[in-house]
Each structure stands twice: as C-alpha cells, then as structure tokens.
Amino acid sequence: MPRFAANLTMMYTEVPFLERFAAAAADGFDAVEFLFPYEFDAQELAQRLRASGLTQALFNMPPGDWAAGERGMACLPGREAEFAAHLETALRYAQATGCLRLHAMAGLVPEGADRAGLRATYVANLRLAAARAAPLGITVLIEPLNARDVPGYFLGTQQQAHDVVAEVGAANLRVQMDFYHCQISEGDLTRRLERHFDGVGHIQIAGVPDRHEPDDGEINHPHLFQRLDDLGYAGFVGCEYRPRAGTSAGLGWLRRWREQQQRGSRT
Q1: What SS3 class is residue 202?
Q2: What is the pLDDT averaged over residues 189-200?
Q3: What is the rounded CA–CA span in Å between residue 179 and residue 257?
Q4: Active-site residue numbers?
Q5: For residues 182 and 103, is the Cβ–Cβ distance under 8 A?
Q6: I want to staple 130 with a disulfide (CB 3.0 to 4.6 A). Which of 73, 142, 170, 197 is the partner?
Q7: Positive or negative, the Cα torsion across 36, 41, 43, 46?
Q8: Which string of DSSP letters, residue by residue, matches 133-151?
Q9: How many separate domains does the chain show?
C-alpha cells in the first residue's frame, strides 16, 4: 500500500502551520511535505516532526520572490549565484529535518528568452545541486507543471523532465511526478507512469480539475495506487490538494483505501 504524506501547505489550514504536524499524525499520516519551510526555524520544525513521529518527505528550494510571481530560478541565466545560495539554505533545512528530497523549481520563461540558453543554465544548476546533495544522501527533484495553473513554467511534460535528467547525468536527480499536473497537461497517466517509472523520485496527487481530494474528479486514483504497488514504488505519495471542506472530514478516500487493502491482506 502506498505511504501517504500530508501536504501541510494545502491541508490542515484550519489550524496554524506548526499545529498541522500533530493534526496530520492524528489522522494517521506518517509523513508530511510542504512548499517552503523558510519562515520557521529549522530546529523548531525538526522538533515538531519528532514529537509527531513524522517523516519529512519533501519541500522546495527557495523560489525567489514568490509573492511577486516567481516560481524558481534554476533555468534563469544571471541568477546562478542566487540559486547556489538558496541551495545551501535548503540543504541546511533538509539536514535539520531529515528530509531526503528537495524540489528545485525551474522558473518562468522570460519573454523573448532563448530556450537553449535557459536549458543550459538549468542543466548546469541541477548538476551543481545534485553534486552538493549527493554526499548528504539527498535526492534533487524536478517537476513538470501544467500551463493552466502555472503559465510560462519552463518544465511542462514528463518526457521533457526525464530528458533533462538524462542530460544532467546525476544518479540523485529524479522527477517528481504529480498526477494532477500530468493529467491536465498530457493525460495517459498509467502508461506515462510505467514508461518513466525508473526515473520517478516522488509522486503527488489531487483531484482533477479542481485540485480537491483524490476521490473527486476524473482520475481513477485507486487504479494508480495499485499500479504503484505493482511497480514496487517505495516512496511517499504527497497529498497536494485543497480540501473541499474540513481536512479530516475529507479523508474518507484514505480510510476507504486502507480498509480495502486490509481486507485484501486477510484474504
């Protein structure tokens, strides 16, 4: 059965952020992820994880000026020094929290930019990130995002992401496959998962089209969960969705899946 991580940026918003760790643990999650930890002290986050018995599955490197619309800088020429500095910050937080996966956001394509130059910058920055992270046992992730939610994002398809990974050539660089983004951008989720599985380092889920619970919308998540089991996926599945109403009240999908798996294990 897949192991699920609650995304504390989107879930449990009924309570302050630092209280969300305990709330997730109370609902039976054994891991959490979130977008960014940097407004909180790293040791405070580590203490919350320990107290709740949770694993930190993932977070993002600093993205630049998020409030102004920036979505990373890994592909942006001229910002290499900033990327390197943010990488060191992210690694410090990862070591404090025991997090073994960091997502390096690519960034938005500037108007009139040369895509070949953007790609060269992206590859060089990812090589740096992977080389710095490797001795720490940390995997760097890149994630294709759909153009409806994030117009202009540099990385848009699974194949594009896996081609970048191949070019970088680092064993600890992998792809973060979010079924929500992939369904909107490309569809054919089962075959894409099977085709690229060896290069996938993290999975995320949400209902399509509205990014609510995974029992809402057009994706057959139980089928995909079973395929993850069949393929031997050992990582976490990040629940990166916005609950329709209360977070705990909306976890019927998770309770049903666990009950189904328990019945299956007894037969």
Answers
A1: strand
A2: 98
A3: 18
A4: 143, 240
A5: no
A6: 170
A7: negative
A8: HGGGTPEEEE----TTTST
A9: 1
CATH number of the domain bearing residue 122: 3.20.20.150
Amino acid occupying residue 254: L
Which structural domain, as residue segments, surrounds residue 52?
Answer: 3-266
Helices (H), 108-147: 115-133
8 Å CB contact between 59 and 89: no
Structure tokens at 98: 């025991």
- 68-90 pLDDT, tens per residue? 999 999 999 999 999 999 999 99
d(CA 15, CA 6): 14
Of 87, 90, 93, 103, the closest CA to residue 41 belongs to: 93
Name residue 237's amino acid.
V
The CA distances from residue 222 to 59, 116, 229, in Å, are 25, 39, 11
Q: Which two tokens stand for residue 13?
A: 């918003």
pLDDT above 80 for 102: yes
pLDDT at 267 over 60: no
Residue 81's pLDDT is what? 98
Q: How far apart are CA 169 and CA 13, in angstroms?
A: 39
pLDDT at 261: 78
Q: Taking 70 as the threshold, does the pLDDT of residue 14 lie above it?
A: yes
Q: What is the pLDDT of residue 1?
A: 79
Closest CA to 199 of 221, 169, 236, 155: 169
